[in-house]
Amino acid sequence: MLLLLSQHVVSFEEQRPPLANLNYVRWSDEDRADAGSSRVAHVARGIMEEADVRSFVTALQEFRPDPKKLDSTDGLPAYEFYIRHEAKDLHSAAEVLRLGLEQRVAAFTAERYNCTTCYLCNVLLRRYQASERMAVPSHYDRLAYITAVASLNPTDFDGGLYLQRSPRAESREYFRTGSRDMIFHQYDLNHGVDVIDAHATPPSSGSPTQSTRARPTSRRGTALRLRLARPMRRMPSVSCTSSGSTATHATSARPSGGRRPPRSRATRWRRIG
User: Would you place residue 222 in the very low, low, confident or very high pLDDT band (cuts 50, 70, 90)?
Assistant: First the structure.
């Protein structure tokens, strides 16, 4: 789950106006985005309560990053901390998960991915700001069966989470969501993060980490990310004791994200909590 915050102020307005020079993900009537080659993303609109968002912001205010902890995508400081790690709660903010969010996430993954055994394994907060990190290079979440990402203050920044259809940065499409929405995708979706200054030109080539360093911005943020595991004997690498990302695939199991959800369960997750 991606949380991007500006000066720790949360607005529950729906969305920031789009920028003319950015490409955005287009959603189908079923809130499904096709990234090609059977790779898809889903959006769960309103899956989080306003109280959930505020609790994560409170956890952010206590955040003291350790620059020695490096990110697996680029080897640079990650500026993140876990509120749940390997299914063990490490922070008081994890109470939000137990009070309803975890059940709604489980119901959504059962509906859209036909996975009734998926469980919430890792939940982490990550901070973005100009003096530390403003981007994550495009990558695959090799060791998560399903990843969930949310932008908690979408009116306070441009860019953010994107999917990338090819090796070229021009193929990026950014997700536009509301503050209580959540993006779900699987390990086969190439994606990254780039927090963009509204007055700057988005990168046309090269690493998003390098391009973001070069442009001044006052944007600040953190990221909360949910990783869901699925117990399967044939996929030992996609387990709760594994973590990290990579630019290559590590499992041959076919994702179920392309399946059309059963209409009889279309809104079951909305009624939880």
Answer: low
Task: Convert 107-135 to b/e letters by CB count within 10 Å (16 or more is b).
Answer: bbbbbbbebeebbbbbbbbbbbbbeebbb
Assess if CATH 3.10.20.90 describes domain 32-257.
Answer: no
pTM for the full predicted model: 0.78
Are 104 and 145 in contact, with CB atoms under 8 Å apart?
no
Q: For the chain, what are the domain ranges?
A: 32-257
Model confidence over 146-155: pLDDT tens digits?
999 988 777 7
